[in-house]
Input
Amino acid sequence: MSELTIKRVTTRKELKSFIRFNYDLYKDCPYAVPDFMEDTLDTFDRKKNAAFEFCEAEYFMAYRDGKMVGKVAAIINNRANETWNTRIVRFGWIDFVDDMEVSRALVKAVEDWGKERGMTEIVGPLGFTDLDPEGMLFEGFEKLGSMYTIYNYPYYNDHMKALGFEEDAVWVDRTINVPYDGGEHAANQQKFFRVAKLVQDRYGFKIHKFKSKKELRDSGYIIKVFEIINTSYRDLYGYSNMTRRQMEQYAEMYLPFLNIDLISIIDDKEGKPIAIGVCMPNLSKAIQKAKSKLLPFGWWHMLKGLYWKRSKTIDLLLIGALPEYQDTGCISLLFADLIPTAQKMGFRIAECCPQLETNNKALSVWRSLDTEVTKRRHTWKKSI
Output
């Protein structure tokens, strides 16, 4: 077998090749959903990604006979390490052919880079922050992926075990049947409406809706949404607080894809936002048709997926409440608003973003709905 070489990414052309390797490796896989080239380039750009205010990174590519056979990003999130008192180097955006020599060389490149900077543990797949894709899929390989999660072949996990990694955090992906009155999956939706009425009467909470994306942006509420995320996620696995610049960056990235009717914010009686629910039509098929690029024609597939030929699936991007309000029933108020909207728009299935398997409080919100865990993913860790 010819010699394997590891090369660091040093030019924008090489960075594009780094990103494209995933598209080539999964081009014949009907379940994989590619990243958008434009967004991913910005994510890896030290000048454009606000996470580089507290992160370091290096990108490695594996070559054999002049052909790329693997790639990985090495990341140190200094803020997370300080918050959790760890010395972790993360590996992310890892892809490789089914060849142990390749995966071993990629992992070693990350380990060596991390050890040079005083790290003592390697963990992944993780991104720069929690809003990047994280967790290696180990159940649900025959389910369609999404724009915000990782899809990988089953052999990835075999390689991690062989390389001495141990399983770490576990996330579950869940589908929920949208309840309809008198329908097969009506579940107990009336409970949400009853509890919502009680919550409003007892605490004076109100649903805050917006007429346009411009109003949402100009009102400053979109930043308040991210502040709720910072507070409600702060104790979760490996989380590091977002900066104001990161909030603005994520707002710019996601706002064009959001439907204003599928955003619900709960205010307390003083008008302070305390809980959020953000949904959007599932765009997995549209992204596959766009073939990872918005230009020149990918935007057309995205517009159709958002407005004219919507999927019957709705994605639950964010559901959360400030910790001091989580036991008030305010989440029922969110669902009481979102369920009728989803019904009116013709959605039949809701897909929830990955949730930590140990986050019992978050997982408990699905008790009154007809749900099924469809995927599981985890991180791998080992000492270096």
User: Anything to note?
Assistant: Residues 100-116 form the longest helix (17 residues). The two ends are 28 Å apart (CA to CA).
